[in-house]
Every structure is written in C-alpha cells, then in structure tokens.
Amino acid sequence: MTAQIIDGKAFAATVRGKVAEHVTRLKADHGITPGLAVVLVGEDPASQVYVRSKGKMTVEVGMNSYEHKLPAETSEAELLALIDQLNTDPAVHGILVQLPLPGHLNEDLVINSIDPAKDVDGFHISNVGLLATGQKAMVPCTPLGCLMMLRDYHGSLSGLNAVVIGRSNIVGKPMAQLLLRDSCTVTIAHSRTRDIEEVVRRADIVVAAVGRPEMVKGGWIKPGATIIDVGINRIDAPEKGEGKTRLVGDCDFASCAEVAGAITPVPGGVGPMTIACLLANTLTACSRANGLAEPEGLTA
Ligand code: NDP
Questions:
Q1: Is 47 marked as a binding-site residue?
Q2: Are both 60 and 108 inside the same structural domain?
Q3: Engineering a disulfide at 8: which of 15, 25, 83, 269 sits with its beta carbon 3.0 to 4.6 angstroms away?
C-alpha cells in the first residue's frame, strides 16, 4: 500500500483563505479588524524567522500585525508591563510571546500574565484547564492544525484508536485532549513507554511529536493507519553536498508511507498548519471579544 499524502501546505492555504474571507466580512459588516501582537525578546535567529513569517501572513489575511521586538536583557517587569498594555488594548485580539524566552525570564509567569481570551497560543493555564474539561478554550495551534487535517481526512474520528507519541504541554498533551474530545480512544506514549512499537501498532491514528529523526518505522504501523508527523528535525544530508542538511520528521517517511493509509510529509505537513491556526485563533478571539459567531470549521 502506498499512503495518500496529506498536503499540509495546500490545506494551510485553504485555512488562510477562509480566515481572510471572514476578516473581509468582519471589516465590511462590523468595522472590526482583528489584530495580532507578537512579542519577541532577544535575537534568536530561528525565532526572528518565525516572527517575520507570522507578521507577513497576518497582514496577508487582512489583519493588523503589531510586532514588539525587545532586547535580550529586557527585565521581567518590563515584559509584564508590555503584556499588561496589550491585554487592555482593544485593537489587539491575540497576543503571542515567542518562545523560548531568554533564561532570566520565567516563561510560565509570562504566559500566565496574558489575558486568556487573547492567548492565541493556548498555553495559559486557564486555557489548558478549559480544554481538559471540554469547555471553550483557545487551543494550541499545532494540535489544532493536526485535528483539522484529521477531521478533513476521516470525517468523524469517533471510536478510532489514537496514539500520540510525546507528552509535551505544547503538542502531545493538548493533542490527546482534542482527540479525546472527538471521541477517539487515546493512548499517550513517551520515553518510558514499554513496547512502544506494539502500542503504536494498535493505532488507527498516530501523531508523532517526539523530536527524534525518523524514529517511527513502517513496521510499527497498522496497515491503513493515518500518520500525522509533527516532528521537525534537521539532519546531515551529505548526498546534497558537504555541510548540507535537510529536514525530516519523527517518522521514517519511506517505510511508513508503504504501510499507512495517509501521512503528512515533513516539510509541508503540520508545519504550515501551525501559522494558519494562529491566524484562525486570532479570528476566533476577535469574534468572541465582539460577541460574534465563531468562524465555522476554524476552531476545535
Ligand atoms: P518535547 O521535547 O517537549 O517533547 C518530546 C516528547 O517526546 C516527550 O514527551 C518525550 O518523552 C517524548 N520522547 C522522547 N524520546 C522518546 C522516545 N525514544 N520514545 C518515545 N517518546 C519519546 O518536544 P515538542 O513536543 O515540543 O516537539 C516535538 C517535535 O515536534 C519536535 O521535533 C519539534 O520540533 C516539533 N514541533 C513542530 C511544530 C510544528 O509546527 N510542526 C510545533 C511544535 C513542535 P518524555 O516526556 O518521557 O521525556
């Protein structure tokens, strides 16, 4: 069997298109423009790239983008003061603090100082609790993107066996909560899981969020299963020339695609969905803040 490729790049473009349509309507019917504020502390090169690309896509869907670039030595008090100001700014509907923060800043404290209604990353402790109890939450972008792709491919997820590999707060745990909400039978595997291959082999849906290049092999996969590969790992690629690298996922694409029914590639799978879902979350936050209906198909 050769798996169907779930094209995250194309899917993300569709999601951004839907967001843009909603934004146009919000402006025309209500005079409201959703606004996303992104806060970057320090000069981490990868973070700078992410922030630039988030800003560009925010503007492309017709939203306002507010970038706050602060020096690495910014104090906690200064950062909290900025967040406080953004929390009360009616033009700002979403606030994202780019992680990781420099070591002297307490990430939990900073994230939990964001107004939960504007917490478009879904990392605030209130949103974690709301998601876990099945209430209306802001849902972390990467798991939300995975859920959208799974719903699109399967329709209903009810009753399917799902194995999430990885238990991080930003991917594994919220992913498991979302799958549970959609009535999957969910197992979370992690570094201490015994017989992980056997556990994964029972899954109709495998979500791999581990950070280990090509760890999941085709032999672990139940024939016909759906694989969502969240991992982004840079490895050496001597075949491309000296010193060259390439990106791979947590799943060994070639062997997994032989067995699975569907699989997301890396790159071009989950990655593009993450920013698309950030925009979707900003739209959702703006709609909720103005007492308007939430955009259909763009929330959990
Ligand atoms: P973390 O490092 O926070 O978590 C990794 C998880 O994998 C942990 O729960 C760990 O278990 C588990 N793990 C590690 N080794 C093994 C193993 N040998 N067998 C089973 N489980 C193992 O990573 P993140 O969740 O933040 O990210 C995971 C991957 O997803 C990374 O490659 C990251 O780059 C990528 N990512 C991609 C995004 C996107 O937009 N596409 C967004 C976010 C992340 P334990 O808890 O026991 O240590």
A1: no
A2: yes
A3: 269
Q: Give domain status of residue 168, yes or no.
A: yes
Q: Please say if 118 is a catalytic residue.
A: no
DSSP letter (8 states) at residue 8 = H
Mean pLDDT score, 14-25: 98
C-alpha–C-alpha distance, residues 131 and 180, integer Å: 11
Q: Provide the domain limits for residue 74.
A: 30-120
Q: Is 32 annotated as a binding residue?
A: no
State how many domains the chain has.
2
Residue type for position 128:
V
Which pLDDT does position 177 carry in this prediction?
Answer: 98
Ligand 1 within 6 A of 8 CB? no
Whether residues 51 and 174 fall in one domain: no
Q: Which of 18, 118, 119, 121 is catalytic?
A: 121
Find out whether the beta carbon of 212 lies less than 6 Å from any atom of ligand 1. Answer: yes
- In the reported structure, the alpha carbon of residue 145 is separated from the centroid of ligand 1 by a whole-number distance in angstroms of 16
pLDDT surpasses 70 at 1: no
Give pLDDT, residue 12: 98
* Alpha carbon distance 140, 145 (integer Å): 9
Is 166 annotated for ligand binding? yes
Q: What is the pLDDT of residue 178?
A: 98
